[in-house]
Amino acid sequence: MAISLEESILKVAARSLMERHQRRLAVTGSHTRPTVPGTVDPLRCSPSSISPSAASAGDDGCVFCKIVGGESPAFKLYEDDICLCILDSNPLSKGHSLILPKLHFSSLEVTPPSIVAAMSSAVPFLSKAIMKATHCDSFNLLVNSGSAAGQVIFHTHFHIIPRKAGDQLWPSEGVRRCLIENNEETFDLVRCIRQRLEFSTEAVFG
């Protein structure tokens, strides 16, 4: 009996999460190391490691789908059945990395919870390794979802951005913030969000 793509994704995600504790980030050498003829460089993305279902589910014009399919180069840090971690090609700081799903989803809100969970479960050990390698003790976990939020590549991804004290990457004086007011407008906002959450729950579990 044939199973749907969604069922297949859920099964793969469940298996990946069960095996996650057995996986460890392993970077075996410099990304500048030459590849021996006839072998595959473990630090480069290769099409042989991608399942047919994942490779065929992408967007032809998406650079991340091309990286997943091995059509475009990238410096690979980690890979499992669900997601891939690569160095950002235009980093904000040394070690700036991206976690992305192998299947194509245009933004976070349309990405299945099981895929988001698999990506999120990789954050602790990936960030720890990245911080050690870059001699940092802090990092930002960033998601840009939608054009107004700064999303440029419309394939869901997380940013891991290593930080050091005084790096002035985002100067605090450049951020405009104000205290939330205890007024009817705030209460209306809370009620509106809660109503939307009820609708979302009904859609998922109804």
SS-derived structural category: alpha+beta
Largest beta sheet: what is the strand line-up? 1-2-3-5-4
User: Rough shape?
Assistant: globular
Which blocks of ≥5 consecutive residues have pLDDT under 50?
17-42, 45-57
CATH topology group of the domain at 12-19 and 41-167: HIT family, subunit A
Question: How many β-strand runs?
Answer: 5
Total helical segments: 5
Order of helices and strands: HHHEEEHEEH
Please state the second-level CATH architecture of the domain at 12-19 and 41-167. Answer: 2-Layer Sandwich
The oligomeric state of the chains shown is: single chain
Please identify which CATH superfamily of the domain at 12-19 and 41-167 we are dealing with: HIT-like
CATH class of the domain at 12-19 and 41-167: Alpha Beta
Strand content: 5-15%
Rounded to the nearest angstrom, the radius of gyration is: 20 Å
Report what the structure shows.
This is Adenylylsulfatase HINT3-like isoform X2. It holds the Pfam family HIT. This protein is of the alpha+beta class. The protein has a domain at 12-19 and 41-167: HIT family, subunit A (2-Layer Sandwich), CATH 3.30.428. It is built from five helices and five strands; from the N terminus they run H-H-H-E-E-E-H-E-E-H. It has helices at residues 5-19, 52-56, 63-68, 113-134, 184-205, and strands spanning 76-79, 83-87, 97-101, 138-142, 158-163. Strand 1 and strand 2 form a beta hairpin. The radius of gyration is 20 Å and the shape is globular.
